[in-house]
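One-letter codes give the sequence; the fold follows as C-alpha cells. An example follows:
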Amino acid sequence: MVSDCKNWFFWVRTISQAGFVSLKTRWSGLVRMPWKWWYQTNLSWVEVSTCLAIIIFASMFVKVVIRSREDARVEAAITELEEIANAVSVYRHNTACVPNKLSVLFSKGMASAANNFCGADTTAQYGNHAYLSPMPTDGDPGVLLLRAGFPGTRILIRRNLPGTASRNYALEVYHFGGALYPVLSACNGVDYSAVPAGRLPHDFSKGVGCVYVAAHNSLGMLIFKD
C-alpha cells in the first residue's frame, strides 16, 4: 500500500516532463492523466480510496492541532485578562481608587497619588500582599501579555474607554494581531458604545463587557462603572 501511495508522484513527473505550457494546449491529455495513472499502477478502487482517505485524514488532523493550539492561546488570554480585571476590582474595594498603571497591582511602592486615577496615595490602604503576580511592563503605563503566548500584546487600564459610554473603567488590549476577533468572540463581545453609563456592567466577568474599540483597533474589557 505504501508503494502504491508513492505512485502519486507519477503525476509530478509527468507534469515536469510535459511542461506547463504544453499542458495548457493539451487539455485532453491532462484529463486522461488520472485514468492513465490508474491503469498503469493497477490500483483497485479500494486502494485509491484508502490513499485518499489517509491524505484527507492527515490534513484534517493538522488543522485540528493548529486550531486547538490557537483556542488554548485565546483561552489563556481571557483567563489572564480576567485575573487582571478582578485584581483591579479588589484594589478599588480596598483603597477606593483605581490605578492608572497596572504595575501598582504588584508593586506597593507604585501606589502613589500619581499612579491612581483618584489622585490619592493608597500605600496605607494597600495591605501586605500584591494584588497580581508580577508582569513585565512595557515601559509606559501598560504591561505585556507574555504568559498567554502573546509577547507583543500591551494592556492598559483606561477611564472612559474610547467609543463607549462615559464613567467606566476598562482594560484596553493592543496588538493582538489576527487573534483579536477570536479573543473578542471568546468573551462574547458586546458593543456598549450606545449604552447609558447607568446600564454598564457593574463588574467584569467572563462573557460580559468585551468591546471592540474601532478607533484603536483594540479590545476593551469593561470592569466597572463609577
